[in-house]
Amino acid sequence: MNDNYENLFYNIKEPIVCETCFKEYETIQNPDIALRDYVRVDVGFTQIGIQIWCQRHNRNVCHIDFEGNRPAADFRSMEKK
Ligand SMILES: [Zn+2]
């Protein structure tokens, strides 16, 4: 693990969202919440990797297969000042 703190800032370039949530959200006229607040997901390790699970629709959003590898992961977080 390197000491690159860049990884601890918001780096998301392409959010992963439930397709069904996204379609539902698009039909809402003048939504009073952002998509990121509308979507509710569980994220966790599985037998093969990491899964993102839609709580609203109780279905898989994305399941990343590590294919037996252990990718580097940074669990540190920046303290808000
Ligand atoms: Zn959903």
The DSSP helix count reads 2
Q: How many E-type strands?
A: 3
- Categorize the overall geometry: flat
Global mean pLDDT: 92
The helix-strand sequence is HHEEE
Q: Strand portion, in percent?
A: 15-25%
Main beta-sheet strand count, sense and barrel state: 3 strands, antiparallel
The amount of helix comes to 10-25%
Low-confidence stretches: none
Structural class: alpha+beta
Bound molecules: zinc ion
* Termini separation: 24 Å
Radius of gyration: 16 Å
Strand arrangement, major sheet: 1-2-3
What is the fold's blueprint, element by element?
Blueprint (H helix, E strand, L loop, with lengths): L18 H9 L7 H4 L2 E5 L3 E6 L4 E7 L16
Antiparallel strand pairs: 1-2, 2-3
This protein binds zinc ion.
Describe the structure.
With 81 residues, the chain is α+β, with helices and mostly antiparallel strands. The protein has a domain of 51 residues. It contains two helices and three strands. A three-stranded antiparallel beta sheet has the order 1-2-3, with no helix packed on it. It is flat and about 45 Å long. The two termini are 24 Å apart. The structure holds zinc ion. The site of zinc ion has 6 residues, from helix 1.
Keywords for this structure?
single chain, about 80 residues, alpha+beta, three-stranded antiparallel beta sheet, 2 helices, binds zinc ion
